[in-house]
Write a structure and sequence with these properties.
The protein is an alpha/beta fold. It has one domain: Aldolase class I (TIM Barrel), CATH 3.20.20.70. It has 11 helices and 8 strands. Strands 7-6-5-4-3-2-1-8 form an 8-stranded parallel sheet. Helix 1 links the parallel strand 1 and strand 2. Helix 1 runs parallel beside helix 2 and helix 7 packs parallel to helix 8. The longest helix is centred in the last third of the chain and has 19 residues. The two termini are 25 Å apart.
Length: 263
């Protein structure tokens, strides 16, 4: 019997909301979840604001003791030095970031980040006590040429080869063809790939690590389809993009246990 994994609903705001808007958003989100009697022990909810918002979000969560986690959208592979514009994992740790997204498809595409750099960033996050959310996924072309799990598994292997069995990390499977398209993968497609990713973790780092590691699905996630994904045995949550900018919608996604079993 595998260990119980607390589901994680993570909101990636991308390049949206300034620090004042972030404060208002987080307050409204916390109130919405509190009014719905949401428990973070049942489902963990995390927001990933732009770097310029992190201090404001951290202060609000700490001062009001909100049941929310926060993380960053990227970090540098370097700890310090002459790297203009880069953000050290040490800085994120000082801002109490629990998580950091690494290797998002937009970073891979627009900033030409390869698997080796994603692996280095993952190690840098762990070095500073920040849990990496490692993104993997295939394009429509990859899917047609290699099948549904070959590319995500290959991307993950490069990262896993740099980790030890006690590493705490999260994996996010985001099919590039589904991100922002409005056309999500089916729950069965998500399960197929997430199962292959878990098997790869088990093969590389052992069954215990595979059992405790959370694997998220991302790509056009919304309140109307989240229950279907969460009914899958190897899907442990969602990395939500556009829908995470709508308080009511994101809150509804986080409250998916009320809907599981109705699909």
């Amino acid at each position: 019997m595998g260990v119980a994994r607390t589901p994680l609903i993570a909101g990636n705001w991308k390049m949206n909301l300034d620090h004042l808007q972030a404060i208002a958003f987080v307050q409204k989100l916390a109130w919405s979840l509190r009014d719905a009697k949401h428990s973070s022990n049942e489902v963990e909810v995390a927001v990933f604001p732009p770097f310029t918002d992190l201090r404001s979000v951290q202060t609000l969560i700490a001062a009001d003791k909100l049941e929310l986690a926060h993380g960053a959208q990227d970090l540098s592979a370097h700890d310090s030095g002459a790297y203009t514009g880069e953000i050290s994992g040490a800085f994120l740790s000082a801002l109490s970031c629990r998580y950091v997204i690494i290797g998002h498809s937009e970073r891979r595409q627009y900033h030409h980040e390869d698997d080796a750099l994603v692996a280095k960033k993952t190690v840098a996050a762990l070095r500073h006590g920040v849990t990496p959310v490692v993104c993997v996924g295939e394009s429509a072309e990859d899917l047609a040429e290699h099948g549904p799990s070959a590319v995500p598994v290959a991307q993950l292997r490069v990262v896993l080869d740099e980790l030890t069995t006690d590493a705490e990390f999260v994996v996010a499977y985001e099919p590039v063809w589904a991100i922002g398209s409005g056309q999500a993968a089916t729950p069965e497609q998500a399960q197929q790939v997430c199962s292959a990713l878990r098997a790869t973790i088990a093969e590389t780092l052992g069954d215990d690590t595979a059992d405790r590691t959370r694997i998220l699905y991302g790509g056009s996630v919304k309140s109307g389809n989240i229950a279907g994904f969460m009914n899958q045995s190897d899907v442990d949550g969602a990395l939500v993009g556009g829908a995470s900018l709508d308080v009511d919608e994101f809150s509804a996604i986080a409250r998916f246990p009320k809907h599981v079993g109705t699909v």
